[in-house]
Specification:
Elements: H1 15-22, H2 27-32, H3 39-48, H4 52-64, H5 82-99, E1 108-113, E2 128-133, E3 141-146, E4 149-154, E5 163-169, E6 174-179, E7 189-194, E8 201-210, E9 215-225, H6 226-229, E10 232-236, E11 239-242, E12 247-250, E13 256-259, E14 273-279, E15 282-287, E16 290-295, E17 298-299, E18 302-303, H7 308-311, E19 313-317, E20 322-328, E21 348-356, E22 359-369, H8 371-380, E23 392-393, E24 400-403, E25 409-413, E26 418-429, E27 432-445, E28 464-467, E29 473-476, H9 479-484, E30 489-495, E31 500-505, E32 509-514
Antiparallel strand pairs: 1-32, 2-3, 3-4, 4-5, 6-7, 7-8, 8-9, 10-11, 11-12, 12-13, 14-15, 15-16, 16-19, 17-18, 20-21, 21-22, 22-23, 22-24, 25-26, 26-27, 27-28, 27-29, 30-31, 31-32
Helix pairs in contact: 4-5
């Protein structure tokens, strides 16, 4: 009880009650306790705001429970100190708040020239055709391709410079690049370029990156007709998916190339492959006019039988043709691979862009798990060798339809559900309207606990698509870029663990944006 004549104050509460109060406030409010006056009260609150219990509770409530990625995450948060827990919690919450702010801002930007002096045929500036962050490295390693050169750059968090740590010079211009989305895979990246002498033949190489020695090592080299190998679709673990009709190349010695999926889908008009993603035991393929599900080439260290890669395939055809698509598969870094089901319990979302009768729209499709397939998996106790039941329920119609600009393209999305696409907008600059290429952010949020109730309506179990309130980034463009559709912004990449975006332009320069 407070003395007579004094008003109750927060600092009069005992420590255990204060800790209970702190466990219900946001991260900025915890940090603001260090600026409380007078000095004696400030020292007490400051000491309490640095307790390990406070930040372990904060990272659980504000990061883990919200499904946000943890920068430099480890498998056991209990092994981290109070300072490390605080740094990760503040970084993740600051990125999340900036992403959903009315006007997202770039906290820091690093710009550098990605052209290499080792290319003897470089007679002028070349475009940065590909940029990609290495998964599992918290956005600190970036791969770029400029002309014939593949380069790896180290960009430490909080640094103002980028350092080239490794280069690989091909015999011809690099036409395609995909990065292994499994950070534990031995192969880091795959590239494809034209053969130096043979007409219509390309060379495909898989490379591993040694960051300690600062060099690339060639793990596999394949020569084949262009229509067989190009384009590169997907690299995961020890296999590479390419071509249309699709083929899978197992990168381990000896190298095997096998057909993959239903080849009849590639014969349909306007039905090229737009996106490929491994969903636990299965491979989800998004084409312009069809969705296809088949067995993943490898699952839990075991290869699928070669006949099942072709025969065990199910698909559904769509009425109109899409121009761009991306697959949103929310993955937690704490999910052990041994405990993963054949198909996740959360919806797997596909965002497809369509142009029909002058209307440009973005359609959301949600693939829900099939209860019959789950029941069969539990009864057998082992992954099936044939697809007796479809692992998911194919969507009969789109869940959400959003109107987009005709120039929208280049979808990028991370495991947390955050992503963006590129489009042309008119912005206000110095009281004048001018066109600019903008990055439009979005978030695919999971279903709420009530929606995950099996007794709830099926339509309410889908994910929610939310757009950012303003553009994440913009760069002015002139009327010639718009008319010829040759923009200065050529390539983009996204690392949602730390909130980094990389942009490669037509002049050989790269800009890395920090949003956290």
């Amino acid at each position: 009880m407070t003395p007579a004549g004094r008003r109750p104050a927060l600092h009069a509460l005992p420590d255990d009650v204060l800790l209970l109060v702190i466990s219900h406030v946001d991260v900025p409010d915890i940090l603001s306790l260090r600026a409380v006056r007078p000095a004696r009260t400030s020292r007490r609150f400051c000491a309490m705001s640095k307790l390990r219990w406070v930040w372990y509770d904060a990272i659980q409530r504000h990061v883990v429970q919200k499904g946000l990625p943890i920068p430099a995450a480890t498998t056991d948060l209990k092994a981290l100190t109070s300072e490390h827990l605080e740094a990760r919690t503040v970084h993740a919450s600051r990125f999340h708040a900036n992403w959903n702010a009315p006007r997202p801002v770039t906290r820091a930007a690093i710009e550098f020239c990605a052209e290499s002096s080792r290319d003897p045929d470089a007679d002028g500036p070349h475009a940065v055709s590909h940029v990609a962050f290495l998964p599992g490295h918290n956005g600190q390693y970036l791969l770029t391709t400029v002309g014939k050169t593949l380069a790896a750059w180290e960009i430490p968090l909080g640094s103002s410079e980028a350092y080239c740590v490794a280069e690989w010079v091909s015999t011809r211009k690099i036409e395609g690049m995909v990065v292994n989305d499994d950070p534990k895979g031995e192969v880091t990246v795959a590239i494809v370029s034209a053969h130096p002498t043979a007409e219509g033949v390309v060379e495909c190489r898989s490379l591993s990156f040694d960051k300690f020695r600062g060099r690339f090592y060639c793990r596999m080299e394949l020569r084949a007709r262009r229509e067989v190998v190009s384009p590169l679709h997907y690299l995961h673990d020890d296999y590479l998916v390419f071509g249309d009709p699709m083929h899978v190349c197992f990168l381990g010695a000896p190298t095997h190339v096998k057909p993959l999926g239903n080849a009849a889908l590639s014969e349909m008009t306007d039905n090229r492959v737009l996106a490929v993603k491994v969903i636990n035991r299965y491979l989800l393929v998004i084409r312009q006019r069809a969705f296809e599900v088949l067995f993943a080439p490898t699952w839990k260290g075991m290869r699928a039988s070669y006949p099942s890669l072709v025969s065990a395939s199910v698909s559904i055809e769509m009425d109109i043709s899409a121009s761009n698509a991306t697959i949103v598969f929310r993955q937690s870094p704490y999910d052990a691979s041994e405990d993963q089901p054949d198909w996740p319990s959360e919806p797997v979302t596909v965002l497809s862009r369509y142009s029909d009768d002058g209307f440009d729209t973005l359609h959301q499709y949600d693939f829900l798990p099939n209860p019959m397939a789950k029941r069969t998996e539990l009864e057998k106790g082992a992954p099936p060798t044939t697809m007796e039941y479809i692992p998911c329920i194919f969507p009969s119609r789109s869940t959400t339809i959003v109107s987009v600009a005709p120039s929208s393209c280049d979808f990028r999305v991370g495991p947390s559900g955050k992503g963006f696409w590129t489009e042309t907008r008119n912005i206000t600059l110095r009281h004048a309207r001018t066109p600019a290429r903008c990055l439009v952010g979005f978030t695919v949020r999971p279903a709420t606990p009530r929606d995950r109730d099996p007794k709830a309506c099926k339509a309410r179990r889908v994910a929610r698509l939310e757009l950012c309130k303003d553009a994440l980034y913009w760069r002015r463009c002139n009327i010639h870029e718009i008319l010829w559709k040759k923009y200065m912004m050529v390539s983009t990449a996204f690392e949602d663990t730390v909130g980094r975006i990389a942009i490669g332009d037509a002049m050989g320069r790269v800009e890395v944006l920090d949003l956290a």
